[in-house]
Design goal:
This protein is α/β, with parallel strands linked by helices. The protein has helices at residues 19-30, 66-73, 92-99, 101-104, 157-172, 197-212, 244-255, 259-267, 295-307, 326-330, 336-353, 361-365, 383-386, 391-396, 398-401, 403-417, 456-462; strands at 2-6, 11-12, 35-39, 78-82, 86-88, 110-112, 129-134, 137-142, 149-151, 177-180, 216-222, 239-241, 275-280, 312-315, 318-322, 356-360, 389-390, 430-433, 438-443, 448-453, 465-469. Helix content is 34%, strand content 20%. The longest helix is centred in the last third of the chain and has 18 residues, at 336-353.
Length: 470
């Protein structure tokens, strides 16, 4: 399956209709029904770009109505985030703690203390604990992602019941899969912050509820050995996100070499027990934290991005991600046609090697926020994707003018959709290099073979992609 990720407010300048209604129309015009959509945070929220939610069941009215969401889900696969690791301070669970901390601290992760407790480093840098003064007492509250939200205790029955209500709401809106955001941080009682045993247990409880509702689970964790900690003995087969894929794809196109990409794909060819989602992304950070990325490759990538003047983000003293938009990175010194050749090439590789190929909608539309002047928030690269585009650009821009790219994506979506669902068993694939510039991917189960050329100048004479049956 091919999935595009979209924030509710993707377009601006449509005063007679809601954001979600305009998004639904854009999806119907830009993509066939075989292309699914991942709708990013739509609940009422109080910060963190919509990820500090004040509720798990109420749509933010500024985006539109529940009927707008049902209209989208009636035409295509809909994945929606389950943001359960943390809540905004205005969420009822956080309010119960804030107004009665002595008796309601079980709902969140907080401790009364006079000194900062020992705790892990937060993924965005710094200690996870922050000091607050509540009811005349000093409390240290666990806030993984920032001051806007507090982490809840998913081992508490009252919290878990509220989570299940949120899942039921997603089902009622027509969602077909749920992405568990920040699932690696659910637990708080292990030697490290990530993948603690209590968090894995909570995740498995939520996954079983998702399965009982007839939905698929996608875990927002990387595709390495840690992902297999979340698998269970029953039929639940979660999806995991191969964040490394973007890094290797971008490396191949920036260097014109398939060396690292081919080696990486071969190493992941035998992964079983989970559904692999390979995203093509940069705006949200090309993450460089997976165990699949060796220290030599990380160093190579860091040096490559520095030479290309691509901004890098560091947390806790280590390189964490790159902060530019995908069109900016992949079409430097070139035009949109060259950009779309690269995107389709990456999508071909994704379709032949994974269950789900994922790309953000604004990246497909060809939006380049960096070209609009000014600066963007390097501490939160998601600001690049959250910027809405004009209606004219959305409906008449580069994506709509590039008939070849749209036709190819539609064909890939039909091929990928032949599987029974995003968590269907995928075929074993074989990867090899033809020469430095060309990668050969063979998927016997799909009866497809692809030759993808990653060198821009080379592709002008030989062609960027060759896809053949048999």
């Amino acid at each position: 399956m091919i999935v595009v990720g979209a924030y509710p407010r993707t377009t601006m300048g449509h005063p007679t209709r809601s954001d979600l209604s305009a998004l639904g129309e854009l999806l119907s015009v830009a993509f066939t029904r075989d292309v699914g959509v991942h709708l990013l945070p739509m609940w009422h929220a109080d910060g963190d770009g919509g990820f500090a939610v004040t509720t798990w069941t109420a749509l933010d009215p500024q985006y539109g109505s529940e009927d707008d969401i049902r209209a989208i889900s009636s035409t295509r696969h809909l994945m929606v985030d389950g943001i359960f690791n943390h809540v905004a301070w205005q969420h009822p669970l956080a309010q119960q703690f804030a107004t009665n901390p002595d008796h309601m601290s079980r709902l969140v992760h907080a401790v009364p203390a006079d000194e900062l407790p020992l705790g892990p480093r937060a993924p965005r840098g710094g200690n996870v604990y922050r000091q607050l003064r509540l009811a005349g007492q000093t409390w240290f509250v666990w806030q993984t992602f920032g001051s806007e939200a507090v982490d809840v205790n998913l081992g508490e029955p009252e919290v878990l019941a509220a989570v299940f209500d949120g899942l039921a709401k997603l089902k009622a809106l027509g969602a077909t899969s749920v992405r568990l955001d920040a699932v690696a941080y659910y637990g708080k009682h292990g030697p490290t912050q990530t993948h603690a045993p209590d968090g894995i247990k909570s995740a498995q409880s939520i996954m079983r509820e998702v399965d009982d509702l007839g939905l698929d689970t996608v875990l927002q964790i990387d595709c390495d050995e840690d992902a297999f900690l979340y698998t269970t003995d029953n039929t639940v087969r979660p999806g995991v996100i191969d964040f490394s894929f973007s890094t290797f794809i971008v490396d191949a196109y920036l260097t014109g070499s398939t060396r690292w990409l081919a080696s990486y794909l071969s190493a992941t060819s035998a992964i079983t027990g989970v559904s692999v989602h390979r995203p093509i992304r940069t705006h949200d950070g090309i993450l460089m934290r997976s165990k699949n990325q060796s220290p030599p490759f990380v160093q190579h990538t860091e040096e490559l991005y520095q030479r290309a003047n691509l901004q890098l983000r560091y947390t806790n003293g280590k390189v964490y991600e790159s902060n530019h938009s995908l069109p900016y990175v992949l079409r430097m010194w070139e035009d949109h046609d060259a950009y779309y050749r690269k995107v389709i090439g990456a999508a071909v590789i994704g379709v032949l090697t994974s269950d789900v190929t994922y790309i953000y909608l604004n990246a497909l539309l060809g939006e380049i926020p960096e070209h609009h002047g000014g600066t963007f928030d390097t501490s939160d690269p998601r600001t690049l994707q959250r910027r809405p585009v004009t209606v004219d650009f959305a409906f008449n821009g580069p994506w709509h003018r590039n008939v070849v790219a749209r036709t190819h994506l539609a064909a890939l979506a039909r091929i990928s959709a032949k599987r029974s669902g995003p968590n269907a068993e995928r075929s074993v694939f074989v990867v090899r290099t033809i020469d430095e510039h060309v990668i050969d991917v063979i998927n016997p189960g799909l009866a497809l073979r692809a030759l993808v050329n990653v060198s821009s100048s080379y592709s002008r004479s030989r062609g960027p992609v060759a896809l053949a049956r048999g």
